[in-house]
Amino acid sequence: MTVLFLVALGWLGLRTALLLAQTVRHTPEAQLGRAFQQELRDRGLIVEPRGR
User: Residue 52: is its pLDDT beyond 70?
Assistant: First the structure.
């Protein structure tokens, strides 16, 4: 029972670490993508969505 508990705890810890690593990696990419879209809007190359 203790081994099962330790495996489950280790799995949850590893899953959390991987999720945090993915979030940290994705953040600069998302900022770059938003900046690029804003640049295209500023140049009139894409139309801004009506919902905004």
Answer: no
